[in-house]
Amino acid sequence: GRVAIGTNVLIRDCSGNIISGLRQVNGVYGHGTQQPEEVHFGLPLGENETYIIEVHYPNFYDSSDLSGYSRLVATAIAQPSTIAGTNHYTLTTTDAELIENPNAPEANNDQEQVSYGNNISVQIDLFANDSDADGDDFSVESITQPSVGSVVIDDADNGFVTFTYNEATPFPGETTFDYTITDSTNSLCPSLGKSDTATVRIFEPCTDPTGIDTDGDGINDVCDLDNDNDGILDVDECNISAALVDNGDFGYWIFNAPGWTGSGNQWNMDT
Asked: How far is residue 87 from each of residues 30, 31, 35, 82, 90, measured CA to CA in Å?
């Protein structure tokens, strides 16, 4: 008769759905037809599909696993049509948890400042502030194009992209695009990976719509040479200031800036 190997074996599809269930054999759990140290199973999805094979300890409830399944000791990803010969896979305990992936990578928002002008090209390091709690490698999975300019992926594995703007009018001050990273590293079963998305803001400080433009002339104060639009350059205008004058001695003070009125020992700044 058949002899169960004394372990639980789960067959899943690439999305993690169980497609071949457990059944009890000779008092313990196994799958399909068993011989010592071997498990045989059919191909419910066909030989060209990809299967995840999981081997667990029997009758062992793992409270740390939300599914409650017993502790995983070996895993493999198999695409039967690519396996030569008798379609055998050998699993050992050294294969344990190879495809487990508890945490998604963390993508964080970025800001990139560009110069004023009609032609802009800047390379951005998206991964400068991104990470993965599991220590997995991650890569750029996709980007959404900004409403202004365009973005191309230069190096998905290292997170480098280039933003380009070439138009007849200067860059309008701000645009954004989203990017998604994934820690999937297996080409046979990429859906085992987890992902996260962040936003990159491209801005030019002189025309950034979130900046302060006191006189409303379309040039933010940080770049405007006359930010109150009174015809006098900011560098030539006097800043309002105050100081203590001992004994009313104004002998070395000159009050000739706009707004000061008075004479002798009494001068006032009109506000």
From this structure: 19, 17, 16, 9, 10
